[in-house]
């Protein structure tokens, strides 16, 4: 069974930096989600802060997904699964 390899050679970004960046962005997504919940209770659903917080969460999620796909193609991360 062959493993899928990246199309490009690995670049100079070390794996710990990728892990730290992913964890920081995941935490930012969670903070944005809970801030939207707080805005929902404080504004009684009538403010635009909820929409802005949720839009930020979606943007962070899409950005993280794109970063993970690019990181995989560049060889910074690889598949890890059960065998």
Structure description:
The protein has two helices and no strands. The longest helix is centred in the middle third of the chain and has 29 residues. The radius of gyration is 17 Å and the shape is elongated. It has one domain. The chain has about 80 residues and is an all-alpha fold. The relative contact order is 0.20. Helix 1 packs antiparallel against helix 2.
Q: State the helicity in percent bands.
A: 55-70%
Separation of termini? 11 Å
| Secondary structural class | mainly alpha
Low-confidence stretches: none
Largest sheet: none
One letter per element, helices H and strands E, the order comes to HH
Can you tell me the overall shape? elongated
Helices, by number, come to 2
This entry's quaternary arrangement is single chain
List the helices and strands and how they pair.
Elements: H1 15-43, H2 49-74
Give keywords:
83 residues, 2 helices, mainly alpha, 0% strand
Compact description:
The chain has 83 residues and is mainly alpha-helical. It has helices spanning 15-43, 49-74. Helix 1 packs antiparallel against helix 2.
